[in-house]
Design a protein that fits this description.
This protein is α/β, with parallel strands linked by helices and 236 residues long. The protein contains seven helices and ten strands.
């Protein structure tokens, strides 16, 4: 990771003096405090810290799910603050993949249909999207479960569907928030291996929030947060 004021084409995530303040009651809460961060392409980084340190807020800001109170964010060369809400939604769909602890799958859709959603939202041909979704599902080992709905899948299988959906558009950035938090140890390890392998295969930059220090230690770089600030970069 590189920290500084300059940017170049290999910088896929850049934050400059980013702060986030929430108005909660009479006392504002500063969730992020003047964050400066540069992440280059093809890096896999763990974000660790105690609850309330600002990890999820950081991920939401980078994921365009929330806007900073102050500062600027560039993703894949685009300054997010210059985009309208509609343009931000389109940008999010093609540039960012999300894997959260809560799978957010649609129970009325099959696994294949859930994976197809980002492509359909992007306006791609249904046949093209279906073929692409089938290939991504195959890459997570779920070809035999294409027609099953989420309620018919195990927790680990549901998370594999979520990963497949996140990668459908081959986004340059993958954001994961406690992706193995609700899984047993064996399934968690399998999902970890899958995520790391697919990020390498798809040449995706991954920012992963976790309380699991064993998982964090598997990623080549780590960010430690405390009280809304990045207090350390590098090895645990």
């Amino acid at each position: 990771m590189k920290l500084g004021t300059e940017r170049n084409v290999s910088d896929v995530i850049v934050l400059r003096s980013v702060s986030k303040v929430y108005a909660i009651g009479a006392q504002p809460v500063e969730a992020l405090k003047r964050i400066d961060l540069t992440i280059k392409s093809n890096q896999n980084i763990a974000v660790i810290g105690k609850s309330g340190a600002g990890k999820s807020t950081l991920l939401h800001i980078i994921g365009t799910l929330d806007r900073p109170s102050q500062g600027k964010v560039w993703l894949n060369g685009t300054e997010i603050s210059t985009l309208s809400d509609y343009a931000t939604s389109l940008f999010r769909n093609t540039t960012l993949g999300f894997v959260f602890q809560m799978k957010n799958l649609f129970n009325e859709f099959s696994a294949l249909e859930n994976v197809m959603l980002p492509g359909l939202i992007a306006g791609l041909s249904k046949n093209i999207v279906r073929d692409r979704a089938a290939k991504v599902l195959a890459s997570v080992g779920l070809t035999h479960r294409e027609k099953h709905r989420p309620g018919e899948l195990s927790g680990g299988e549901q998370q594999r569907v979520t990963i497949a959906r996140a990668l459908l558009m081959a986004p340059p950035i993958l954001l994961a928030d406690e992706p193995t938090g609700n899984l047993d140890k064996h399934t968690s390890l399998a999902i970890q291996n899958l995520l790391l392998g697919l990020c390498e295969e798809y040449k995706t930059t991954m920012l992963l929030v976790t309380h699991d220090l064993d998982l964090a230690s598997r990623l080549p770089q780590r960010i430690v947060m405390e009280d809304g600030m990045i207090i350390d970069r590098g090895d645990l």
